[in-house]
DNA sequence: CGAACCTTTGATGGCACTCAATACAGGTGG
DNA sequence: CCACCTGTATTGAGTGCCATCAAAGGTTCG
């Protein structure tokens, strides 16, 4: 059954919003969207803007409409690790928590659809499907986090940088599901380094290697085009290279 | 209001089970516990037993009654990363997923309370509070995973090992909330190495350093006693050491 | 007691960090 | 439009931490 006949009831701002399809708002009916929309506000922030301060009580929540948000964790001595990247139409915030030790900061220009804590809690009471959506996003983020732990703990610098480009290509476009062959890196080298657990210099060197190897082209330090996806995947260590070992894995895995 | 008056209705096996308090079963009433209990089974497995095979369809779920489970992620070339440790009374399994790329393996001897996929789904339909509990565990695991990303990405070998001991001390005892000063390490050195993104040799060396520094004592390679918790925290990098920098952080944070 | 496994310790080398200098991009004002 | 300036990125040289290789010491079984 198509819901589009009710589209007239959906707030104008929500009509084209991806959060209504792949985001949490998909759990809400038109009436609830109107109700939430009344308390919601749009906001556009510049790169570097702090969206959630670590250790502070979170005052509200938001959906990411466009742009990239980095989740950061800080050590007392100043070392920083980016523990996650969030893309449209992700939900932003930490439900049920007094305060999180994790901060959120705009990596690129970010457009947000914000709503107060109470509005979300009200919606949660009304619609059990909403919590289910939130749960599913949490599970997805958990999978992503654990994937990245593999990258941080086991991979070499070259593999880390290649993995990063693969990650970006998969997530940069909120509408498509496949891999984007060409995109702008929404992070500075310093951010990439903090995400990969490397230094700026090492990141730069590895990008140069990929460029000289003809696997990617980079323009103006930001715009990347992946010309050889398979090679990139090999460099990321996510695909078997040794045929012998591959065969062995296959056999043991199919039992 | 005390629920203990209903304890007569609670299955005998559940009476002393920690999952009924801090685990997911706390969301169920006695009748539902009976219903779930009918389909549940107890299982005890030895260290090294595979509980969930990566890439396989998960046939069921379980609560951990005692012992430690390691969640592992594997690269095609054989490199392994332990992406999480789970303790009693954690819920084990990946709801709503066809199959997970993450495997689960008993690190120590593990006792489980298992139930089939359908039983959980039935419970989820009956009790919305259950999904809420699952969601909260997922959020907790997400926080833990991100904490550990900081450890993997930024910390030195010495800090990693110290952080590992702190993690164990906090989680090893399912009944207490504080820090256990003495406990058995439920992992072999090779597992610790895979968890920390180090080699066995480096782990061993760093443990020796902590021992020679008088911060911990280790007997029979497994039993650890933390004699200087503050020093351990300093070595883990989780506590400010430089007073000047500490003051600076404090000031900038309070604005 | 002996065998298998695990852990520790030592010697050496390589990858990524540090330090330092140069090149580039984007914005502002002349 | 160009000169300037700031923040950002690249490239190079040297060092140090941790991995690798190798061997000996412990522990836990049968």
UniProtKB/TrEMBL annotation, chains A, B:
CDD domains noted in UniProt: CAP_ED (cd00038), HTH_CRP (cd00092)
Domain Cyclic nucleotide-binding as annotated: residue spans: 24-141
Coiled coil feature spans: none
Alphabetized UniProt keyword annotations: DNA-binding, Transcription, Transcription regulation
Span of domain HTH crp-type: 155-230
Record GO terms (molecular function): DNA binding; DNA-binding transcription factor activity
GO cellular component: cytosol
SUPFAM superfamilies, sorted: cAMP-binding domain-like (SSF51206), Winged helix' DNA-binding domain (SSF46785)
PANTHER family cross-referenced by the UniProt entry: CRP FAMILY TRANSCRIPTIONAL REGULATORY PROTEIN (PTHR24567), FUMARATE AND NITRATE REDUCTION REGULATORY PROTEIN (PTHR24567:SF75)
Full protein name: CRP/FNR family transcriptional regulator
């Amino acid at each position: 059954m198509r819901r589009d006949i009710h589209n007239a009831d959906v707030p104008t701002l929500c009509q084209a919003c991806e959060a209504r399809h792949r985001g949490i708002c998909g759990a809400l009916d038109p009436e609830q969207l109107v109700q939430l929309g009344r308390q919601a506000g749009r906001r556009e922030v510049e790169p570097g803007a702090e969206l959630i301060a670590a250790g502070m009580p979170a005052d509200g929540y938001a959906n990411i409409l466009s742009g990239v948000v980095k989740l950061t964790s800080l050590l007392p001595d100043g070392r920083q690790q980016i523990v996650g990247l969030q893309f449209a139409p992700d939900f932003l915030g930490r439900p049920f928590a007094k305060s999180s030790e994790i901060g959120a900061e705009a990596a690129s220009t970010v457009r947000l659809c914000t709503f107060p804590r109470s509005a979300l809690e009200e919606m949660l009471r009304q619609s059990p499907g909403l919590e289910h959506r939130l749960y599913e996003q949490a599970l997805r983020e958990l999978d992503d986090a654990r994937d990245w732990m593999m990258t941080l703990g086991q991979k070499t610098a070259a593999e880390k940088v290649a993995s990063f480009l693969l990650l970006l290509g998969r997530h940069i476009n909120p509408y498509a599901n496949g891999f984007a062959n060409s995109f702008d890196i929404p992070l500075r080298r310093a951010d990439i380094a903090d995400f990969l657990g490397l230094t700026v210099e090492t990141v730069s060197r590895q990008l140069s290697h990929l460029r000289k190897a003809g696997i990617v082209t980079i323009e103006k330090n930001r715009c990347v085009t992946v010309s050889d996806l398979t090679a990139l995947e090999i460099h990321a260590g996510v695909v078997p290279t040794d045929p012998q070992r591959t065969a062995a894995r296959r056999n043991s895995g199919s039992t």
